[in-house]
Design goal:
single chain; 125 residues; alpha+beta; HIT family, subunit A; 7-stranded antiparallel sheet; 2 helices; 24% helix; binds zinc ion
């Protein structure tokens, strides 16, 4: 069984979205997009809703799916400098304490579709 899965329609919409993006980085444009709701923002990172949330995670129903996204374009966590790392851990600790599981794909993970590093915050029931 797949570890993470989207609803079929959401997955189809997601594929359309990726195709339309081409080479543009959606996460570099997040702060300029007025329709995007930023839930939390530090000097170097922000927390947003996943546009195309998973329906299932670890074989359970997903109740909420957020993402930590660094403001600047990094491809991997190990590229973060100390200031970005500190901001990132502040948000990881905050959301983990609120019951979110934390997951980030490595840059070479074939399931990682958007290159800009992002960390999934997933609450299941
Ligand atoms: Zn980017």
């Amino acid at each position: 069984m797949a570890m993470a899965a989207r609803d079929t329609q959401v997955q189809s919409d997601y594929q359309d979205y990726l195709a339309e993006l081409g080479d543009a980085c959606p996460f570099c444009q997040l702060r300029d997009n007025e329709s995007e709701q930023i839930l939390d923002e530090t000097d170097h990172c922000m927390v947003v809703h996943a546009k195309f949330p998973y329906e299932r995670w670890d074989s359970h129903t997903v109740d909420d799916h957020l993402m930590i996204v660094p403001i600047h374009h990094y491809v991997a966590v190990h590229e973060f400098d100390d200031a970005v790392s500190a901001d990132f851990m502040t948000l990881v600790k905050l959301y983990e304490s609120r019951g979110y599981s934390v997951y980030a794909r490595a840059a070479n993970n074939p399931s990682k579709t958007i290159r800009h590093q992002h960390t999934h915050l997933i609450k299941i029931s």
